[in-house]
Fold this sequence. Notes:
Layout: H1 2-7, H2 11-24, H3 44-76
Amino acid sequence: MQIAKDLDINDKTLYSWLREYKKANSIHVDNRRTTQKTSLKETLDEENKRLRKELAIVKQEREILKKTTTYFAKETL
């Protein structure tokens, strides 16, 4: 993971911090990293709802990484 390299820390350390942050802030953790395929029975509304939920999780993860990067960038100065 590039962020861990930039921060000069182990990938597992960064993942551990993210997991703890999510747990402390009641952020849903979806451990499945595979893409779900749309079943034939899934309606467009159901697919849209699922994709919006996934997008929200990805946005939360991105914000956490941004804050972490900013925090550690300040510490290295």
